[in-house]
Design goal:
This is Guanidinium exporter. The protein is mainly α. About 85% of the residues lie in helices and about 0% in strands.
Length: about 100
C-alpha cells in the first residue's frame, strides 16, 4: 500500500506547480491557487503515509522525481516548454536514478 500512497503523493506533487502556473495565466487565479494548496497538502499527506513502510530516502527521491519529471512533461506537452535534447536526457537520468535507488533499497 505504501507504493500506492507514494504514487498518489507524486501525482499531487505535479498538481501544485501546475495550479500555480494556471493561476498566473488564466483569469481564475483563486481557483487555481486553491488547487495548488490542496495539491500540496495531499502530496505531503500521501508522502507521510508512504513513509510508514518505505524508507525516507527512497520515498523522498521517488516522490520528488515523479513531481519533477511529471511537471516537466506537462510543461512540454501543455504549456509549450522547450523539449530540447538536454532536458529530455536529464529527465531520463532522473528516472534512471529513481529506478536505481528503488532497486538498491
Amino acid at each position: 500500500m505504501g507504493w500506492i500512497y507514494l504514487l498518489l503523493g507524486g501525482l499531487f506533487e505535479i498538481g501544485w506547480p501546475v495550479g500555480m502556473k494556471l493561476a498566473q495565466t488564466t483569469g481564475s487565479r483563486f481557483l487555481y491557487l486553491s488547487v495548488a494548496v490542496i495539491s500540496m497538502a495531499l502530496s505531503g499527506y500521501f508522502l507521510y503515509l508512504a513513509q510508514r513502510t518505505i524508507p525516507i530516502g527512497t520515498a523522498y527521491v521517488v516522490w520528488t522525481g515523479i513531481g519533477a519529471v511529471g511537471t516537466l512533461l506537462i510543461g512540454i506537452f501543455i504549456f509549450g516548454d522547450s523539449a530540447g535534447i538536454w532536458r529530455i536526457l536529464s529527465a531520463m537520468l532522473v528516472i534512471c536514478g529513481i529506478i536505481g535507488i528503488k532497486l538498491a533499497s
